[in-house]
Design a protein that fits this description.
The model has no long low-confidence stretch (mean pLDDT 79). The strands form 4 sheets. The chain has a 5-stranded antiparallel sheet. Helix 7 crosses helix 8. The relative contact order is 0.06. The chain is elongated and about 140 Å long. The protein has 14 helices and 17 strands. Helices cover 50% and strands 19% of the residues.
Length: 601
């Protein structure tokens, strides 16, 4: 109905307008939110680096103060004696670290042996494992370094200073933990929080995530969500950003910015990953408000569209309804239907054109019916002529064989006569059946399905054409059969299948005017039975392959173009399909697929 279409157009216009505005506003909001989020992340990263540098300076100053202290210098002098005794300084590192507010402090001799350790006193006398790298960091700024403790491995901010009061220098290694207390010093904007992942081990572990707001035992929920981001940063050692969905609620999603923290040394090992999360709750709530407003505006607009379209339809649809009613009358067979012309506008012109159309249709109706009848009879005649042509040729060959046998070998004429008579009677019966079926409204008969052995049908076809294949005076065509002995039966009309394969064999023989090889194969594929008829003839071009099953298309001078179309119709009526494979100069292969026979057939 025009009324409904007008309403649909108006409503759709309102809907698309509101949707477009909503999309633009949402896109601008998202862009502004992303820009704000990037600015917040950049500010937090800058703050972290500034705090990191400040803490590093504090650690460096405290280590320098320890290295310049009188007690430590006395220790260095004592260790440069001929027979130094480090025993009195066993507790020096611990006491000094407490007074200097350092979490880590060790005094190491020039040979790398530990004189005193605040974080692990039992390391007294052991060699410092990273002594060579620490020597290179002497008098430099603070750096990250993992530190082994009795209860595990932690990450710290370290500085190294050297005391030179004799030939043997003494190294002061001090630092502070990079843990929750350090993260807690960061001034976090609203909706932002920071995590620290300590890179230990080959695989991700939620226990290595440091969250200043929770206990480490409560970090199991981090595993599944953060693992892909952490693994990606561990592989690339580059900053990355990813949206993390903590739950099914979009308001709980966060954009996590991962910053790798590298250690000192030539290989710059990845020691930790700083994870800065920005909540998307404000953005999600804002988008929800925008959508709610859009729904409200859209609803009001649709109501207005209904009112406007109803008013417009009342003034426009009456002429259209009259035209539609007249069109229905014509469709029902009333070719004399007319529409009253009430104006010179577009609807009036349409009504006038409709009246002229019905007048012209009345004159063309009879001519069209006559033309359709002629075309139908011509189509029937072509199909009948083509179907009668196939059995007539074997009849002719059989009669010629009888005449040749009577002239050349009268003694065996009786035997040849009996066999040829059977062939003649069989083909005459086929002719009667063809004529009888074509008399049923000049269309191809519906198949009478029964359990059929395809190999038997193919053997019958080859026996029928054996004389033609070896006809004297013509190039010899060899015939090869590759039949699957275990081929299951198919549900088919034996006669129609026989005729279809005969058509394919005739086409293959016509394609080999200089002789060649005709190959017939059968095989089982999944739930299908395949029949392949191949020749070594001229082959077909890709264009010919596309049109080969089109009715009345033929490449033969005297062909009707119905043979393969009829074969396709037969195969289709059996629930199968046919395909062609060919290349110019390399022959043609036609493959027929038929479904297996069911037990009920």
């Amino acid at each position: 109905m025009f009324r409904r279409k007008l309403l649909t157009v108006c409503a759709l216009t309102v809907f698309l307008s509101v949707a477009a505005v909503t999309w633009v506003v949402s896109a601008l909001t998202r862009r502004a939110f992303d820009r704000s989020e990037d600015e917040r992340t950049a500010a937090l990263v800058t703050q972290f680096r500034r705090e990191f540098s400040r803490q590093g300076e504090v650690v460096a100053r405290r280590v320098e103060a320890i290295a310049a202290s009188e007690a430590v210098n006395r220790m260095a002098v004592a260790l440069n004696r001929a027979s130094p005794d480090p025993g009195p300084y066993f507790e020096l590192a611990k006491d000094t670290a407490e007074s200097s507010q350092l979490d880590f402090l060790e005094f190491v001799k020039s040979d790398g042996s530990i004189v005193s350790s605040a974080q692990w006193p039992a390391k007294f006398g052991y060699l410092e494992s990273a002594f060579e790298a620490l020597q290179a960091a002497t008098d430099q700024g603070a750096f990250l370094k993992p530190e082994e403790l009795q209860d595990g491995r932690v990450l710290g901010l370290f500085a190294v200073r050297v005391i030179r009061v004799g030939e043997l220098p003494v190294y002061v290694i001090g630092g502070r933990r990079l843990d929750k207390s350090f993260l807690a010093t960061l001034d976090m904007p609203l909706g932002t929080h920071v995590l620290l992942y300590q890179n230990r081990g080959e695989h991700f572990s939620a226990e290595l995530v440091v969250d200043p707001s929770t206990d480490s035992t409560e970090n199991k929920h981090f595993s599944e969500e953060l693992e892909p981001l952490v693994d990606a940063v561990r592989r690339s050692k580059r900053e990355m950003t990813r949206l993390v969905q903590w739950s099914g609620n979009p308001a709980g999603d966060e954009t996590i910015h991962a910053i790798p923290l590298l250690g000192a040394g030539l290989d710059h090992p990845l020691l930790a990953i700083l994870l800065i999360g920005n909540s998307r709750r404000i953005y999600v709530e804002l988008i929800q408000r925008i959508r709610s407003a859009a729904v409200m505006v859209g609803g009001i607009g649709i109501v207005l569209a209904i009112l406007v379209s109803s008013w417009a339809a009342a003034r426009v649809t009456r002429p259209v309804e009259q035209l539609a009613f007249a069109a229905q009358e014509v469709a029902a067979g009333n070719w004399n239907a007319r529409v009253d012309v009430t104006g010179d506008d577009e609807l009036g012109q349409l009504a006038d054109s409709f009246n002229r159309m019905t007048t012209e249709l009345l004159g063309q109706k009879e001519r069209l019916v006559q033309a359709e009848r002629v075309a139908a009879w011509r189509d029937v005649a072509r199909r009948l002529a083509h179907e009668l042509k196939n059995p007539l040729f074997p009849l002719q060959l059989t009669v010629e064989n009888l005449m040749r046998a009577r002239q050349q070998n009268p003694a065996q004429f009786e035997e040849v006569f009996q066999e040829s008579s059977k062939t003649l009677l069989t083909e005459i019966a086929n002719l009667k059946e063809i004529i009888g079926r074509f008399s049923e409204f000049s269309k191809m008969p519906q198949p009478r399905l029964e359990r059929t052995q395809v190999n038997d049908v193919i053997r019958g076809v080859t026996q029928l054409f054996q004389a033609q294949l070896e006809a004297p005076g013509h190039p010899k065509i060899g015939c090869e059969l590759h039949l699957d002995p275990h081929l299951p039966p198919v549900a088919a009309d034996t006669e129609l299948l026989h005729r279809a394969i005969s058509n394919l064999v005739l086409n293959a023989m016509d394609a080999m005017p200089q002789g060649g090889t005709l190959t017939l194969c059968t095989r089982e594929e999944s739930n299908k039975v395949q029949i392949e008829v191949a020749d070594t003839g001229l082959g077909l071009t890709p264009e010919q392959c596309e049109q080969i099953f089109t009715p009345y298309y033929t490449s033969k001078p005297n062909g009707t173009g119905l043979g393969l179309a009829i074969v396709q119709s037969v195969v289709s009526d059996h629930g199968g399909r046919i395909a062609v494979r060919s290349e110019p100069g390399r022959g043609t292969s036609l493959v027929v697929e038929l479904p297996k026979s069911s037990e009920s057939v």
